[in-house]
Sequence to fold (217 residues):
Amino acid sequence: MNSSAPFGILGGTFDPIHIGHLRLAIEAADACRLREVRLIPAGTPPHRPPPRAPAWQRLQMARLAAANCPGLIVDDREASKDRPCYTVETLAEMREELGDDVPLCLIVGADAFGDLPTWHRWRDLFALAHFIIARRPGAGDAPWPEALRAECVERIRPGWKDLATAPAGRVVSIEIPLLDISASGIRARLAAGGNVRYLLPDPVLDYIQTNNQYSGG
Fold:
């Protein structure tokens, strides 16, 4: 991959990480010619209930999932903290490490991007990274809040080439395969004694079974 290619960033609770997460990272990397995608498991999410699995286990599952996926790198900066972590702080840390000129791309689903005005210091995010919005083919998007629409009207670009020519501030969309997989659905199946093979990587499933993770609801 070209050394000037953007870095991708995909955060989440990954409780547990599954095939849908990995496909999203791979699709974004391919569609936008990303140098790599950093998977960042959340430690203590500030806007949702605590994850079922502790941060160290979710971090280990992410490492197992990414082990045989070239271009996917697991970043432990949020999982290693014992306080709530905000995306704007994580991006600021990465910007300090990688420099002011390196393009950073935050990968988010369409629904999550529509909720962006609820994020901590959300407008500051555009000074730190581009956004890659992942949409499912044929899926209609809910209208963006007016504040978000106004913020993005001059930022939207048609494709990946626009991400490599600036460090931050642009918004592009990609289509991803329709994979109806969710971490909550996997947890529910496991709690009920169901079979979740092929919904998540085999090493992750082996880890969950070995540690009796997510059993009992």
